[in-house]
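input
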Amino acid sequence: MKKTVVVTGATRGLGYAISRQCVADGYKVIAVGRSLSASLDELMERHPGEVVFEAYDFSDTAGIHDFATAVTRRHGRPWGLVNNAALGHDGVLATLHEREIAELIKVNIEAPILLTKYLIRPMLINRGGRIINISSIIATTGFNGLSVYAATKAALSGFTRSLAREVGKANVTVNTVAPGYMETDMTSALEGEKQQSIKRRSPLGRLPGVEDVANAVSYLLSDKASNITGTTITVDAGSTA
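output
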């Protein structure tokens, strides 16, 4: 029987790449997002029954308990949870609206903590599982205009380390993956010199792709990573070295 992995923010970008890799690895994927994308719909058509879309908006933290209960009831106890969904409002703190600050904290910190709270319970019953939190190198390096975003991603790293100690005896591992700038539509839209300056910071002279980050997630979900917990894997082509 296939193990089930829940991936949030799975409809595009990194979340979609992680979902695609998980299917290739032989997992059943519960792909969570606000609305179904064309790329995820195509993935579901190629892998009927192996990829299932579940709609949810994580700004509704009050409904996460019922959502997690329904997912477990419909698809069985999950083996893995990848907390990837996040918002990325940018702006200097002095001018960032309080509503945007509250939204970042709710979606980027409160939501993954609550979802983990309710999906880790079946993992504890099964005496095994994987929690993977997607952070960012911004959590440790800082970046102008991303102070609140950086705070939320740093919070996930602290959450990872302490939770790993709580659930380790039940054979549940908890880790963080911290991507750097990746080859995405967003970075391709950067002006030439700005993109080149980012690449020059890398010893490898390039940016990682979403597939590189998905491969790190794949490793942490696997039995090969059974003795890795409470740590962060950075995937940034060496930019922070």
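quick obs: The mean pLDDT is 93.
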